[in-house]
Specification:
- Residues 14-115 form the NAD(P)-binding domain.
- This is NmrA family protein.
- The protein is α/β, with parallel strands linked by helices and 358 residues long.
- The protein has 17 helices and eleven strands.
- The longest helix is centred in the N-terminal third of the chain and has 15 residues, at 86-100.
Length: 358
């Protein structure tokens, strides 16, 4: 695959993650030159090498390393790490971007972003939005999806291997976007940043669905019974800890589930952003589910069934986390009046317009 040297080289962070890898794949399909920031040279970075991507090892929290990584690039996709110091990473990126004279940043944000949200990560995401939008001489495009299809489908092995579908969100609805559709909007913005500068785009799926609707779709594709099972958050936290999920991630995720129940992801959904920007309809849940069912962890093999059975039975004996205590011990700053999205008039006002706040 040859590289079109007339095209600006694009920097991608989170290059081996869900959206970053999809962004890179789509950019290379268009024969666009890409430089990817990776944590280390390993098998995942070798896959990028095979795509014709230039890889560079850099610390997302170090402005000097980021400046070196930006050399030779003019545009960037920034995916903030799900980390207690995400704001430091974004600040380092902004400082380096100014020094490198980048012309555009396309940033992955959050539909819930707000300075008043209970989640520290979500409050930091809001601050990152504001900071990037104030950078002089750098076009900023905000891509702020809600609750990804991936958040549901990472549990697809429960359905394929055990015949159950964990339900955390009750009958509340969402129009979940695929990683690939999120990436398509990012790529459109990266290839024509001047046209999209100052805009906010929310990729969604084409239809509002509850977790019970999703279970019915999975049952249809699987061809065997799938039983939706309400899973209390304390039980989910135990299962997640068993899989190595950090307390910081879970401390935010529990709030996102509550936002889901209160209708935050149904608010303003579905959008037509995917179709309007890419000319292709957003992928429906069945299409996305079929892709996840084909992944190795979800295949109906004897080894997978045994693993799923053992892990399922270990959950009741796995300690959870005291997430409130965790937040106190980490000295997370707390807003005077934490508010979920649907309680927050400011959030609803800001998220009712496609333009960024001035």
């Amino acid at each position: 695959m040859s590289i079109n040297i007339k095209q600006p080289k694009i920097l991608v962070t989170g290059a081996t993650g869900k959206t970053g890898s999809a962004v890179i794949t789509q950019l290379r399909q268009q024969d666009l030159p890409v430089k990817a920031i990776v944590r280390s040279h390993d098998e995942r970075s070798k896959r990028l090498d095979r795509l014709g991507v230039e890889t560079v090892v850099a610390d997302l929290f170090d402005p000097d390393q980021l400046l070196v990584a930006m050399q030779g690039t003019t545009r960037a996709y920034y995916c903030p790490p799900l980390h207690p110091y995400a704001l430091q990473s974004a600040t380092a990126f902004a400082v380096a971007a100014q020094a490198a004279k980048l012309e555009a940043i396309v940033g992955l944000s959050q539909w819930l972003a707000s300075p008043d949200h209970p989640s520290l990560h979500t409050r930091q995401i809001w601050l990152i939005e504001q900071m990037f939008s104030m950078l002089p001489n750098i076009a900023y495009v905000n891509v702020n999806p809600g609750y990804f299809a991936d958040n549901y489908l990472r549990l697809i092995d429960f359905a394929t291997l055990l015949g159950i579908w964990p339900v955390l969100t009750g009958h509340s609805r969402n129009a979940p976007p695929s990683n690939e559709d999120i990436a398509r909007i990012v790529v459109v913005a990266l290839t024509d940043p001047d046209r999209h500068a100052g805009k906010r785009y929310r990729p969604t799926g084409p239809a509002l669905l509850s977790a019970y609707d999703m279970a019915a779709t999975i049952q249809k594709v699987l061809g065997s019974r799938v039983f939706p099972v309400n899973l209390p958050m304390w039980m989910f936290v135990r299962a997640a800890r068993l899989q190595g999920v950090s307390p910081f991630v879970l401390s935010s995720f529990r709030y996102y589930v509550e936002d889901h129940k209160r209708g935050a992801f149904e608010f303003g959904a579905p959008t037509t952003d995917v179709y309007e920007l890419t000319g292709r309809p957003a992928e429906d849940f069945e299409t996305i589910a079929r892709r996840y069912m084909a992944l190795p962890f979800a295949r109906q093999t004897l080894a997978n069934r045994l693993r799923a059975f053992v892990n399922f039975n270990l959950v009741p004996f796995t300690p959870g986390y005291d997430l409130d205590r965790f937040e106190r011990k980490q000295f997370h700053p707390v807003p005077p009046l934490p508010q979920f999205a649907m309680e927050n008039e400011r959030w609803q006002t800001e998220h009712g317009s496609p333009s960024l706040p001035v």
